[in-house]
Design goal:
- The chain has 489 residues and is of the alpha+beta class.
- The protein is rod-shaped and about 165 Å long.
- It is 51% helix and 21% strand.
- The strands form 4 sheets. A 5-stranded antiparallel β-sheet has the order 2-1-5-4-3. Strands 11-13-14-16-15 form a 5-stranded mixed β-sheet.
- It starts with a helix and ends in a 5-residue tail after the last strand.
- The protein has 3 domains: 150 residues, Beta-Lactamase (2-Layer Sandwich), CATH 3.30.450; 94 residues, Signal transduction histidine kinase, dimerisation/phosphotransfer (DHp) domain (Helix Hairpins, Orthogonal Bundle); 152 residues, Heat Shock Protein 90 (2-Layer Sandwich).
- Bound molecules: adenosine-5'-diphosphate.
- Adenosine-5'-diphosphate (ADP) binds next to helix 10 and helix 12.
Length: 489
Amino acid sequence: MAPATVVAVLGYVSLRQWETATDLLFREQARDLAAMAAEKVEMMLRHAEDAFLDRLQAVLARGSADARTLDGLVAQFPLIRRLYVFDRRDRLVYPGAWLHEDAAVFRPLLAGTPPGFWERGGKRALVSGDHVLLATLLKSRGAPVLVAVSRDLDALRREIFETTLGGLESPTIVAVVDHRGRPVYSRTSLAGAERVLSVSFREGLPSWSVAVYVPPGASPRQAVQRQVAVFTAAFGVLLAVIVAGIVLAWRLMRQEAEMAQLKSDFVANVSHDLKTPLSVIRMFGETLEMGRVADEGRRQEYYRVITRESERLSRLIDNVLDFSRIEGGRQTYDMVPTAVEPLIRETLEAFASPLAQQGFKVETRVAPDLPEIPIDANAVGQALANLIDNAIKYSRDRRAIAVDAALAEGELAISVVDEGVGIPPEEQGKIFEKFYRVGRSETQGQRGSGVGLALVKHVAEAHHGRVTVESRPGTGSRFTLWLPVVGRG
Ligand code: ADP
């Protein structure tokens, strides 16, 4: 989690820096673009106006500046809306006839020409009402005249702005804004666009400017915000993966710890299980050896105990050895057609003395005419012995055991039924796992290795069968070994 947090913080900081840097760079580029556009427009404008003024100067110098000639000249230049010519005494020489709008032009024009203008000459652009005027001094047959032109807005759009700005390749929109802040030209619609910055024209269009807009959704900030969203989503996925990893690792660790605990219980339980019969054998053996038992009946009983305990020891050792063979994948089974009834009887026989001694009522219900089935008699016998051993171990007051064998839907079902302590439903799935014991070690006061049922399950599966349990705590259990009647593989 700590590295993930560091990555998140670093990612956030770098995205923020990136956002600022992108914004800065974008503004710089926009400013360059606007400045370049303004320069181009001014150059074009100057070029067009100079061409007109040159022609006008030529006409004036020739002295042929009558109203008709000047009308004709103005008509040739669509960019020129109106032309005014004043003499040194501010008298209007041209046009002869005034228009209504002209009155508004004169005053700012004459007020805007400084006193030294007549001497120094030069060019001056000034704003008058809706229009931008260009004033300059020309010579009419040696005498200076003040010439002013107003521009036609449509022609300005068409001939100057469109030709200079129309072809600009840029994801942004370059627009021209007049002295009242109204956009007078833009290549595409400005609806919803956001103004980034504007750069004023220098001389030709005073108080006008070139403005750069970004279309809706295209601002660098929005682009960065999208990146932030992507980053956040990616980070979320990363976090989910890390959390899943942690949960998985934790689970694995817990399983490992549980398995280690089970193994150590197993070792303790097996050692104890080995010791108990051994000490009984030794005790009875020594007693007999010392010849202290005079009564023949007692002696016979001691021999039986020794035999029984050594059988128990063999079973335990067989279980552990088989289990280790199974774990190592070395266990092999020798399938031979076998009659089931004698196998069941033999197995029960081995338990005859403990069953009799502990007062068990034993019932065997084997269906007649069971077919021979292909099994490894040793393995199935051992599995059965484990089930019977458990039935004895986990019985309390009601000491009754039944072994049933019958055909059911193409399978042979061998059940061992007891009336013992039973198994809680939530444990029934786990008891077949290796080392698992209900309530861990010392279950229900009985020692055991926890591998008995694991072995039964393995034997059942090796025969392409299965083992099931039906049990109610306090009532008893029924373990059933299901074996297919027709051999496979
Ligand atoms: P164990 O050596 O402990 O008997 P098993 O693998 O044979 O190991 O059995 C696993 C657990 O299942 C036992 O510890 C016991 O709690 C439970 N169990 C098995 N058989 C019975 C049964 N017939 N009645 C009640 N509980 C049983």
